[in-house]
Model the fold of this input.
Amino acid sequence: MAISENPFAPTVVISNISPLVEGGRFATKRIEGELVRVEADIFKDGHDEIRAKFLWKKIEKGSPLGWSETPMSPVDNDRWATELRFEEPGLYECKILAWADAFSTWIHDFERRLTGDQEDFATDIEEGRIILEQSAERASSSRKDVKAIKELEKELSKADPDDIPELFESSDTRDILYRHADLSQATENEEPFRFMVEEKLAAFSAWYEFFPRSAKGKENEHSTFRDCLPRLEDAKKMGFDIVYFPPIHPIGHTARKGKNNTLTAKKDDVGSPWAIGAKSGGHRSVEPLLGDLDDFEQLVIDARDIGIEIALDFAINCSPDHPYVKDHPEWFFQRPDGTIKYAENPPKKYQDIYPINFHCEGWEELWEELLDVVLFWVGKGVRIFRVDNPHTKPVSFWEWLIARVQEVAPGTMFLSEAFTRPRMMEMLGKIGFTQSYTYFTWRQTKEEIIEYVEELTKGEMRNYYRANFWPNTPDILPYHLQNKGPAAFKIRAALAATLSTSWGMYSGYEFCESEPLEGREEYLDSEKFQLKERDWNATGIKPFITRLNQVRQAEAAFQEYANIEFIDSDSNQVLAYYRWSDSDPESRIIVTVNLDANYKQDSHIHLPLEKLGIEEGQEFQVTDLLYGESYLWRDSTNFVSLDPRTKPVHILKVTVS
Amino acid sequence: MAISENPFAPTVVISNISPLVEGGRFATKRIEGELVRVEADIFKDGHDEIRAKFLWKKIEKGSPLGWSETPMSPVDNDRWATELRFEEPGLYECKILAWADAFSTWIHDFERRLTGDQEDFATDIEEGRIILEQSAERASSSRKDVKAIKELEKELSKADPDDIPELFESSDTRDILYRHADLSQATENEEPFRFMVEEKLAAFSAWYEFFPRSAKGKENEHSTFRDCLPRLEDAKKMGFDIVYFPPIHPIGHTARKGKNNTLTAKKDDVGSPWAIGAKSGGHRSVEPLLGDLDDFEQLVIDARDIGIEIALDFAINCSPDHPYVKDHPEWFFQRPDGTIKYAENPPKKYQDIYPINFHCEGWEELWEELLDVVLFWVGKGVRIFRVDNPHTKPVSFWEWLIARVQEVAPGTMFLSEAFTRPRMMEMLGKIGFTQSYTYFTWRQTKEEIIEYVEELTKGEMRNYYRANFWPNTPDILPYHLQNKGPAAFKIRAALAATLSTSWGMYSGYEFCESEPLEGREEYLDSEKFQLKERDWNATGIKPFITRLNQVRQAEAAFQEYANIEFIDSDSNQVLAYYRWSDSDPESRIIVTVNLDANYKQDSHIHLPLEKLGIEEGQEFQVTDLLYGESYLWRDSTNFVSLDPRTKPVHILKVTVS
Done:
């Protein structure tokens, strides 16, 4: 019989589980200790009382741990929910179990029977007794529970019908019977699903990027790893936790690019760190001018001592001088004449880079080699990788690589540097990148920013895409920062640092470096192609940035990814929003930003008092965490004035006395 | 190597396919010949040109047919789409195939190369030649194509670079190369998905329900199948295609209900047809007072002769006298004393019905028996079943049963009579019910109706839930029809018949029978419990209903499920909407309904001229298909006047001269 191929016909329907990514195809991302809400539609035919629970188990090699569980409760319209916190990072397998509960159905029916005109309850009581008897059998591993159930059974047998509901009223009693419910006909959701739970840094981080070779700020002197510690200390002082280095590997000589990306390098030109590979080595080596591997390892240790993680760039680019070219020509694309193809985007040619053929015949060996490169640096103490242009390599490669790394070195973080079309950026988040660059860099107007932040935090992206907001990068000096002064830089930094739980800046930002390559969104004399003269000890807007990061550290409201709501403001130049914390109810912050770097802007803002936990007419204090002033407010409508020359931003902490 | 466990690393990402039901867990419903649009996100790393196609194959035992296919095209933002029509009913397995296309990438790059300063194209031309050579190898089954490709290869070798794009411009050439593309690294979507394609009747149908035992309309004389033909002819004359009979099986005697659902039946009381089973048989037998199986079979034949399908009620209810009770007591719930449980919803008891235990120990035999009952009636010529209270039986049972029936008797239709909570009603649609009853019966106000119809036709339900709108049933005489006259009945019939492609009515509606059981939404002297005295030859609102069904038959706009949009109207009592057809552009209909059965209502309505295919300022004619009048309209804003005593509804066909 075909029916017997399905030996267990499900008794309960479990569907529409949330939050899932593509129906569970990809793991849902959350942070350790974060409040997680799981929901599902759970229902069955007829009038049985349903019970349901959510179960989770860490997927770990040789892990002997069993399932953890928490009961789910009905919310509305057959929707059930539970809230929990995953206490440890890891990949969790999850499932939902639901069943028609014999005891609950019986007692519920019994209570309703008492409201009718039934007189003889003997059979109904006997049914209850049998249910208890069977519970006691299932409880056999707990003598205490068996005893309690047997006691109930005895009381049930001699009770007056009207007194029976009372027998089962206590939550202890209900818990005992729930623990030993008959799950032999329970239904499990059809497809298991997973949560990827990561440490807090995965969602709450402040990044700082600089080129080690310019660590001393000398135009004519190549700096080394040994010069980098003062820069790390500066970054730490400004409140950053992660310092990201562009590639540190040997730089190719063949077709090396000159200053400002010119085609022919001069003799002293240092080349682009992204043209990786020379005689001195490839992706496992360091550029000799920076020092050696020992120097690098020491720097990682020194950095960690002061609370800084060093993130490496993982750029799968090979210069024509990369050892792979000689050792594995089959990993590259070849022209009919047998030469290796350089990168092209016709009619543009990039002769300094040979792209890799990820689907070449020897792809398995190639993929394993690249995995091994990542693990090599993991072995040197690196836990965080910024991945260069992941969208130019196969998505399936990244899914495979990240999963493998997570198996060997759980908690390794990958930041996706994909500035490309939305579906690709989203997919890279789904398949495992920890964080992703975003379009924030170009979102300027109030409308654009609100729309984008809501897309990131209110929709499905919230479950797989962790935004990292960068106002600039070595590749991007956006038009709105070009030739601008401190106000513009403060505004964009404040937006990045308070709209998103992760943000980052490329060095020079703190000095408001703003001279563009004429007509392009790029830096003039870009560090990508030359050593940079820079007075690292200048002040610039360091105090402002420092304060931003301090406030982020002090207030839980800035540390919970999706806890942001925009506030109505009358001026189109004034952006207002509030943030809150699920773990610290005292951390309630209203941010107001003047988007106009040139003129003072005033606006009324209209607070959602109820959401802020403030009663109608109640007085409350707001204290500017950037500048110290306090104001007493009472109504939902309040006035703010934001002067780009003095205070373009207010970060207002709400306190109710 | 773990990597080799995944022998084919996908090159292209295919995701977010639509229209799927729960990500493909359930088949998407469509109708033969209907225009179907399939979409997916399709993209890959880098700059390769992508090609994609949609493939489908009927799932049929021993079917030797291969895949059919149609190319997909990019729409926007990595979204690809195709449109097709499944020409035959059946369950179709579907997939999407996408690949980086070597030829398309090469020619696209070549065209861009010509815009730069490249001078030597020899290597690039040679690359193109190799691509053609490989195409020719793959084309070996078509000598014509091989010849054409070889010819191209020759021309390519001697052409001036600037002339090369022209060589490949013709769509014939492109088609040949597309046909023989290299699919060795093509990607298939991860999970196959299915379309359930049904005959037109599955989505476009008009149902009429009557009790055969009252076919002659005599209160004191039980009618038989032989009395039913005039009723079928009446239904046909009114334009109905399906006549549904309440259960025709022997009715139980034990605990039989009396008139108006009273607990004790009098000697002559005929009982409820839903209390199935007596000495004379169970679900495979007919009530002796109606005739015998031969009579029934003859009636099915006679009905089909006049274009009527007879739908049977499949009610899995057993009276205490049902043969199952004696033969299979293990299929029922038993009390501790060994007696069989009657149905209960405490404190209410239904002693005339024994519910079945679908998860009893002998469930496989039980399920097979119930399947066999359906197939028994299929064998007697029945193709359509109205299923009584499916939500009180396990969803998994229905999913299994319907799939099995469809294997043996493809095209069998099941109408779900679940008036219950939304998730259960939706799920029954997902798991295979062809059509479903709806909340329409209680949706009254303009706002309620618009919200509900949009939910059914604009959202995901459109893919699995086929609404059937009934203004009344033997169980439900809604308050808004109680003690009302023809206007109310016309209005609700017109709404049902024109808002939904399937509608139905329970007999007596055409005579505006409206006397309720005091204080309840039920009929007084319900036919469920007694023979009904009725003058079947009275006129009532038959002409109006007939006209409604004629208009539905004549206009394709009423036959395409989701082709409905609401139109703004100024009055809250005037509901306006338009319908159109994807297959007949001339069928454009505006419906306006006065929701108020008591007073004339006037309103301006505001037509979306562009959607109606009418240019600004263009004159167009609207002709009332119910009453014949024509009007010349020009603007988007037009006036309608709807008098419940004369014309509560306009069905206006738009024609542009």
Summary: The domain at 200-248+286-316+356-554 of chain B is CATH 3.20.20.80 (TIM Barrel). Chain B touches chain A through 67 residues (CB under 8 Å). The first strand of chain B starts at residue 13 and ends at 18.
